[in-house]
Amino acid sequence: MNEELVTIFSIKHYAIHDGPDIRTTVFLKGCPLSCWWCHNPEGLNHRIELIRNLEKCIGCRECVSGCEPAALSFVERKLVKDETLCTLCYSCLEICPAMVFEPTGWKTTVAEIIQEIEKDIPFFDQSGGGVTFSGGEPLMQAPQLVRLLKECGRLSIHRAVDTTLFADSKTVMEVARHAELFLVDLKLMDEDKHRLYTGVSNRMILANLAELSNSGTEIIIRIPQIPGINDDEENIKASAEFLKKLNGRISIELLPYHSSATAKYKKLNMTYPGRDIPSSSPETIKRNRSILESYGLTVLP
Questions:
Q1: pTM (2 d.p.)
Q2: pLDDT above 80 (res 214)
């Protein structure tokens, strides 16, 4: 990977759900997990893929004639792409007059991202906010992430990292040296269930969280409430037992689940594993908040 470039899929200004106060959130591409309920499927793959907005297609076939690998064709008046032939040359982006094709991200430099963040410094100063680096999994681009954090530190901008902590401990602790806040996803305590629903073991995640809690960095634990998967009392109590043993400044957020990402999966021609999961119940979230608080833990509003 070229360390001079960062692969991102979005920069969100005036974010209010990615850490305290008004923030700029930079979303880095690539994630080692494959959670059934992922709301950012465009951030899973580190490669820049192409979304097809087929409802925009006017049937001109310009993209078909201009596709050198011959990956595009029309079948029964419908545009079809052969993924085995596509080389991601992106020529279709320039050829299509109806802008059917849309990239899932872009490569940019640390300097260009910092320039974008600097635009919001007046809002940070007024609200006490800052920048959040999210994903995907930002630790997958750790060298670039550290440079971004250092530059934000030079500008006295509050820095948060939204992460699964699925990385080697050396990487986690290096990033922690340059961040004031970690937003850590805690999905499931049972290792077998964690592997089933995310594709990876949770051993490294839990070990990193324990080590991070000794670093002095503030941590907000974010527990997504996925009905039928991790919102049961057993998982919440197991989470509380683990979290109450950690050190440092730790609080918890319970994140309700909703299926708003369905359209994203359709555009990416991906099957959404969470398509049949119902929305979170307010009663269940209230119960789980009470359980966590009964262990002496701080649950944020």
A1: 0.91
A2: yes
